Amino acid sequence: MGFSHLHLNKNTSLQVTKTKLDSLQRAGVELMIHMCPNCHIQYDRYQSVIEKEYGVEYDMVHMNIAQFVALSMGADPYKVCGFQTHSVPLECFLEKAGII
């Protein structure tokens, strides 16, 4: 939906994001890697908003491709990758992956 859509038509933007999250959840996605920084922000920042507003719960986390590559090369999730800035907590995923 793009960055400007979130501000110009928030309800439609959140509904489209919810539809995509629903599809990802049905497919069993646990980690979504985003190439686009705006997409990463849309999904990470607004997943919890959608969960509250629509009474749903998603069991997935979101990373930007640069974070994923850095993490894969052994970078610290917090000091280098900046995972503490995410709205969707990554700790459960990192534990499951044996990273922390």
UniProtKB/TrEMBL annotation:
It comes from Methanosarcina mazei (Methanosarcina frisia). This is Cysteine-rich domain-containing protein. Its cofactor is [4Fe-4S] cluster. One of its GO terms (molecular function) is oxidoreductase activity. InterPro entries: Cys_rich_dom, HdrB/HdrD_reductase. Gene3D superfamilies: 3.40.50.11810. The lineage of its organism: Archaea, Methanobacteriati, Methanobacteriota, Stenosarchaea group, Methanomicrobia. Pathway: Cofactor metabolism; coenzyme M-coenzyme B heterodisulfide reduction; coenzyme B and coenzyme M from coenzyme M-coenzyme B heterodisulfide: step 1/1. Keywords: 4Fe-4S, Iron, Iron-sulfur, Metal-binding, Oxidoreductase. It comes from the Archaea. It holds the Pfam family CCG. Residues 8-42 form the Cysteine-rich domain. The keyword Metal-binding applies.
